[in-house]
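Contributing new records

If you add data, match the layout below exactly. Sequence lines come first and carry their own label; structure lines follow with theirs. Keep one chain per record. Anything else will be rejected by the validation script.
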Amino acid sequence: MTGKLRDAFTSDDKDIEKKSVFWNMTFSILSASQSAVMIAIVTRGNGTESAGILSIAFAVAYLMYTIGAYGARDFHATDSQRQYSYNEYKRLRLISCGVMIFCSLIYCFYKEYEGYKLTVVILVCALKLVEAMEDLYHGEFQRSGRLDIAGRLGSFRLFLSYIIFVLSIFLTRNLLVSIVSVIFLSVIMMLVNEKLLCKYVVKVENERNKKTLLELVTVCFPLFIMLFLSIYISNAPKYAIDKYLSEQEQAYYAIISMPIFTINLLSGIVYRPKLLHMAELWNMDDMAGFKKIIWKQVQTIIMISIVINIAGCMIGLKLLEMMYGVSLTELTKEFFILLLGGGMVAMYGFFSACLTIMRKQIFMLAIAVFVMTLAGMISNPMVQHAGLMGAATLYLILMLGELLIVLIILEICLHRSNRTKINKNLNNS
């Protein structure tokens, strides 16, 4: 059985980089589209009220997911010198996922969710719990130079889950049964991930001279806090909508904000496969090569943002109306504002990954705390008094603040690193 699984999801060592790009792209598209696709299906099958509940459920679940993942994925994948063993990463993930379960329950009771809404939120959090464990296996595949295997496994799971969800919604019209079906499939695929990883990758790792779990918890803590606050910040409009507006308006906001994730997803497809190479350049003190890749990725993200913004202005709303089966004409201004924020999100994500490679993730914590404080001050009043326009404007303000600060910090870190290298060369000569 193990041999058949390995043959199905692995391949020979030829053209691994090209295969990694392709399968990472496929998985990233399917993954980033998850909430949008499922909300579209529910909108068509069950109406906008259920879609609104599913939207806030995903917003809560993504926040809880950051607890389960603990911000360790990029650190894990770029640990090219293997300072920490796979078992240490696994122990960390088991602990963080346990905390995620506890925090999900506490959050739901704090928000006083009940009945149908409470059940939907808990189930979507359970789905993200499974995905947090899957992310551990994908991180180790990537660190071992086999991002292609992770991409294949993840793509297969998501493709099947979409089919199961569609069939379940339109056959039963029951959102709860549909989510449970997807969770069941995800658990099976998680076990397949672990089986393949143990047989194909981890067996070659030398466990000696590895740093401790406590050190790993400490070094990843700033990344976790940063990602937790980042998700909170990006979903701040949804949390405010959940407090002051209706479930239908929650669904409308989720629909018009979908292109944001398209920009972010396409940008991630471009830069994520480059992270390991960037980490190697950084560890070799190849500042010229490191900066060259950064500049190329920045140009690519800008081009992607421009293309999607132009396409969005021309046909974006019409496509969304066709996809979701609702009228969005009155939300044109809000849609355009969110499009502008989408490019900023993508650029911020890439710059954050650069700081992680440079092991300067502590600075991202300061950024997140500052912007979260701003979000806490202006979120509720803007949404309460301006509705969906206030939510869209709030998003743009928060994303612009994040981008400007991370850009300044990255430039300072690069400048200081370059000066250090120059001084080192002068001393050696």
